[in-house]
Amino acid sequence: MPAVVVSNGGDVPHFEGKITFYVILCVIIAAFGGFLFGYDIGISGGVTSMDDFLKAFFPEVYERKQHVQEDNYCKYDDEFLQLFTSSLYIAALIASFAASRVCTVLGRKPTMQIASIFFIIGVALQAGGTNILMLVFGRIILGFGVGFANQAVPLFLSELAPAKMRGALNICFQLFITFGILMAGIINYFTSNVHPHGWRISLGLAGVPALFLLLGSLSICETPTSLIAQGKNEEGKAILVKIRGTDNVQPEYESIVAACEAARLVKDPFKKLMKPSSRPPLVIAILLQIFQQFTGINAIMFYAPVLFQTVGFGSNAALLSTVITGLVNVVSTGVSIYAVDRAGRKVLLLESCVQMFITQVVIGAILLIDLKPTGALNGKEAWVVVILVCVYVMAFAWSWGPLGWLIPSEIFPLETRTAGYAFAVSSNMLCTFLIAQAFLSMLCHMKAGIFFFFAGWILVMGLFALLFIPETKGIPIDSMFEIWKQHWFWKRFMTEDEDEDDKVHQ
Q1: How high is the pLDDT of residue 8?
Q2: Which of 412, 405, 424 lies closest to 481 in space, CA to CA?
Q3: Confidence of residue 72 (pLDDT cuts 50, 70, 90)
Q4: Exposed/middle/buried for residue 220 (C-beta within 10 Å: 0-12, 13-18, 19+)
Q5: How far apart are CA 99 and CA 92, in angstroms?
Q6: 61 contacts 78 by C-beta, under 8 angstroms
Q7: Measured between alpha carbons, how far is 461 from 431 in angstroms, rounded to an integer?
Q8: What mean pLDDT is predicted for residues 363-389?
Q9: Other CB atoms closer than 10 Å to residue 373's CB: what's the count?
């Protein structure tokens, strides 16, 4: 039986292997890093809409919220309230570069363990917070955890998975993000009625999955690529046999060894990233993160309860609507797991752009016409907005959400993989910070126009996906360099001398 099957134009090898129970276990444990990220995204918006929390830390916002004639779009506009949400992401941006180095030197598994420790410390500071400074400091520590987890987990999943299932297994990271968002919505719904410390329960329960990640990571393996890169070739080969469920791993092993040998020749991966041949994956990785955030998804996920209160729902109804959108998010991410290695990455990206563009425009039009600075939408229109938000979330969840993490984790060669992915993570955190810090102010000043703002970005990113993102399904992670040579635009960056360097991979 041949070990390598050549397809995709005759240049890309396929290696033997299957999904084992051990791989599934490793994926579930590692993906809890995504659960923590999602829980934080979902929990902060609910907490910042709770009266007990506002009275304790943001009394001016609480007083403004009580004024029925206050401008619908501006009643939550407060820089410090936004800083509570956004401070985590600027910390994650900085931490991602340190995490890149840790990921390279120590491996993916220890980086996840460090992330879980940061999470536990940050949760304790937040749940026990007695002043704004303590809250924000806790958020910053959590940001370090996010930076380390978001650096290590997608790389771990991509390197662990066989090529034919890499998309589905990597998307488990995004699936667990959506689980985290949903669980946060459910918890906020119940704790909003627990006075006066329901918000402490919401923030403190993040410690449970953080502890699970820390303890569970003790039972998972390091990736073969990371082990071989550290010079532990025999251990790496043994793990490769274990996760592939076959003894016939020599071709894939040799491919990984060749990639590691090429990587050792690169003393400064960040300098290597500046060379023309590194430009295609670097540009795509960074722009995917920018586009992912400027779809407006985190504006909706962070502030969904606030948004739904703005259009006329009461506090409990707004939190319940958030649970509904969270459930849609989870189910739709499951669609991506099924479709990404069948339909491919590009089809999902393009289809979703059409769906998200239409929903953003229609939501904007409804609010522009019918939601005045005072008053609210009527019941039917408010529920139409909820349904449209669900349709929008559905499109994002099976495309730009998971693929924004999957594609950058698979397109870099080993010598620049952790460095390149650090740029992707930091770009994501920077844009998340900007949206989280600015959204409530943007909502106040742009009003319904904010949805047209995001629709414009969706149009741009759809054109980018159509013209510049190549299809990567089924291509082994250490053979990805071939796609740049075949792409109509990116092939111009593959200069002759760098093409010679690439042959080392083969």
Answers
A1: 42
A2: 412
A3: low
A4: buried
A5: 10
A6: yes
A7: 15
A8: 79
A9: 11
Class of residue 79 by CB neighbours under 10 A (exposed 0-12, middle 13-18, buried 19+): exposed
- Computed on alpha carbons and rounded to an integer, the radius of gyration of the chain in Å comes to 23
Both tokens assigned to 338: 């099924």
Who's near 487: CB < 8 A, 6+ residues apart?
Answer: 280, 470
N- to C-terminal Cα distance for the chain? Answer: 22
DSSP string across 169-228: HHHHHHHHHHHHHHHHHHHHHHHTTSTTTHHHHHHHTTHHHHHHHHHHGGGSPPPHHHHH
As a whole number of angstroms, the distance between CA 218 and CA 466 comes to 42
* For the chain, the helix, strand and coil percentages under 3-state DSSP, each to the nearest 5: 80, 0, 20
Residue 342 three-state SS? coil
Tokens 């053979």 sit on residue: 479
Statement: residue 444 has pLDDT above 50? yes
Residue 240 has pLDDT above 90, yes or no: yes
Q: How far apart are CA 384 and CA 311, in angstroms?
A: 11
Distance CA 395, CA 191 (A): 30
Compute how many other C-beta atoms are within 10 angstroms of the C-beta atom of residue 99: 29
**CA 462 to chain CA mean position, Å:** 19
3-class DSSP assignment, residue 332: helix
Residue 84 has a CB neighbour count (10 Å cut-off) of 23
Domain spanning 14-505, CATH architecture: Up-down Bundle (1.20)
What are the two backbone dihedrals, phi and then psi, of residue 173, each rounded to the nearest 5 degrees?
Answer: -60, -50
Find out whether 430 and 93 touch, Cβ atoms under 8 Å. yes
Interatomic CA distance for residues 190 and 450, integer angstroms: 30
Say what the pLDDT of residue 4 is: 36
What are the structure tokens assigned to 340, written together?
């990404």
Please tell me the pTM assigned to this model.
0.80
Written in H, E and C, the secondary structure of 347-403 is: HHHHHHHHHHHHHHHHHHHHHHHHCCCCCCCCHHHHHHHHHHHHHHHHHHHCCHHHH
* 3-class secondary structure, 81: helix
Give the Cα separation of 214 and 258 in Å (integer). 32
Q: Please give the biggest Cα pair distance in the chain.
A: 75
Report the residue count for the chain. Answer: 506
Q: What is the dihedral of CA 477, 106, 239, 20, to 10 degrees?
A: -70
> What mean pLDDT value characterizes the chain?
85
